[in-house]
Amino acid sequence: MEQNFKVKVNDSLDFSIRSAQAEKLDLVNTSPSGYHILHKNKAFKAKLILDDFQKKQYTIRINSNTYQVTILDELDLLIEKMGFSSGNNKKMNHIKAPMPGIIIGLEIKEGDAIKEGDTLLILEAMKMENAITSPKDGIVKSIHIKLNDTVEKGKLLIELE
Known about the structure:
The chain is mostly beta strands. The protein folds into 2 domains: 4-74, no CATH class; 86-160, CATH 2.40.50.100. It is 9% helix and 52% strand.
């Protein structure tokens, strides 16, 4: 099945690539982290310096240049479009509604110490219960909603310290 990927290089160059294009690359693995690439009749030596599969971030050296590369698949793009976080942003201090809905559960109170992954609240949207979890360890600074509130996408729900 054809997949699309969004590739970001050095936080400045964005482009899309299809899986069929990636499969056509003339790429030979020469060592555990080394590759020989032939592109438009030019040869390149590439080395994978660092890979963080969870964050989908890679550091690659091609010839003498080093690049920071992030590769997002269709699911990552959908999650980003819906306003969810994949857990990569540890600096997030504001929890916003990822979609319109009704607050049907509030698991924390101001001043609570929370851990990454703890459930903060339950948001009902389209007859589904969605657990909104903490993106990081922290302290609940303020809560901007209460049970049975109706919220719109993007509304500030909780602030963390």
